[in-house]
Write a structure and sequence with these properties.
By secondary structure, the chain is mainly alpha-helical. It contains 3 helices and 2 strands; from the N terminus they run H-H-H-E-E. It folds into 2 domains: 4-51, no CATH class; 54-91. Helix 1 (4-22) runs antiparallel to helix 2, helix 1 runs parallel beside helix 3 and helix 2 crosses helix 3.
Length: 91
């Protein structure tokens, strides 16, 4: 009596969190999104890009491996420009 929606919403949230974690994102963030917006959250996580397959490059200053779409190195703050295609690593 009245517990149907919370059970369904949590089930969608759990499925969304598991798919989000498999794609390399935060389980807890996707769990919240999937619980608050059950069907829309599930569709969003399915369409979300996978962090594990994103190409990487190396920061020229601190030599940390960062994703290609990162514009400022999170470790040293260096502005990163498009690298030479030979410097891009594909996981």
């Amino acid at each position: 009596m009245g517990l149907e929606y919370p059970v369904i919403a949590f089930s969608f949230g759990l499925a969304t969190g598991i798919i989000g974690r498999a794609k390399g994102s935060s389980f807890w963030l996707w769990l919240i999104v999937g619980t608050v917006l059950p069907l829309l959250g599930l569709v969003a996580v399915i369409l979300h890009r996978s962090e594990k397959t994103e190409p990487e490059r190396q920061c020229p200053t601190c030599h940390r491996a960062v994703k290609l779409y990162v514009q400022v190195c999170p470790r040293c703050g260096t502005d990163l420009y498009l690298p030479d295609p030979a410097e891009v690593r594909r996981p």
